[in-house]
Amino acid sequence: MKKITKIILLNLLTFLMIETTALAVSPQSTNFTQGIDVSNWQGYINYEEVKNEGIEIVYIKSSQGDNYKDPYFESNYENAKKNGLKVGVYHYLTARNEEEATNQAKFFASIISEKEIDCKLAMDFESFGNLTKEEINNISRTFMSEVERLTNRKLIVYSDLFNAINTFELADEYPLWLAYYGNYEEIENVKTNWEFWQGQQFEDMGKISGISGNVDRDIFTQEIFLEDNSKIQKTEGKKEDNVSERITYIVKPGDTLWGLSRQFDVTIDEIARLNNIRNPNLIFVGERLEIITNTNFNQTGAAGKDLYTVRPGDTLSELAIRFDTTVESIVQLNDIRNPNLIFVGQRLRI
């Protein structure tokens, strides 16, 4: 798998270097660095293994809206830094007016304050509701200019190809991190608002050692790096509603992972991943377990994905019908190896 991945990436980079002049939106330079972007969906990540795969940059979700801090942000940041990876951060913007954009900028800045960030701060704004094109761009400018004022750091716009063509008018102000998984020959004559990109998310089903399940794969040009990667100045913002905390729990007689998942409002899979437990049905009295608690985790996750707690009698086929999706989609999103085997209390992303 590792060798095949390297061959695929090498072919992609070679194509980009050869075809740069033909593309409507091209890499700003050809000195590429491999990267990934992650959030709580990946759970616990072994960054030593990630680095051994040749990954050098990790973009970490820090926050969403004006009160949601990603429960894995702190551990992702600390472990990525500890293993020598370059760190970028992104905020999932949900503002519907400029006042909300300002509030979310302050919240974002407060979450990443006193952190050493290596790459441009990223705005992920992709769900617009009934906003007009003008409103979307005004909200984006308000958010990004306020973040830049508070942090004294440069920003980048994360966007898919459709919105880079039809929505955002920010090319003269901010660089582009483009999400595009298709054939580059198909966009040779496409006119976007950007001439270059500094980041390219080329896959959303990547497989990397150290990460259970899928992960977004990226390549970045050298322009993605910040000139100043010292600690960002301390900024106060609205306190997050989902109070996440990393604790050490000592297993007691009668404890099960299912019971602990209910007690601390996390998933069985998350406890197992964080503690490298191979058999979720086997834990020992006196064993020390690391647990990341999150009081909001059973509500709604990022980008509109819902978290559902499995109840007695549930099956994937019934859940697929209930939530108007497919069994295959639920299996893929949750990295389920046996579609006929789900557990009461298990959390599923829908």
Question: Would you identify the regions where 5 or more consecutive residues have pLDDT less than 50?
Answer: 14-23, 295-305
- The chain-level mean pLDDT equals 83
Beta fraction: 15-25%
The Rg value, from CA coordinates, equals 21 Å
Q: Secondary-structure element sequence?
A: HEEHEEHEHEHEHEEEEEHHEEHHE
Largest sheet: 8 strands, mixed, barrel
| Shape assignment | globular
Helicity level: 25-40%
Number of helices: 10
Q: Structural class, from helix and strand content?
A: alpha/beta
Q: Within the largest sheet, what's the order of strands? A: 2-3-5-6-7-8-10-11
Q: Termini separation (Å)?
A: 28 Å
Strand tally: 15
Offer a concise description of the structure.
It is built from 10 helices and 15 strands. It has 350 residues and is α/β, with parallel strands linked by helices.
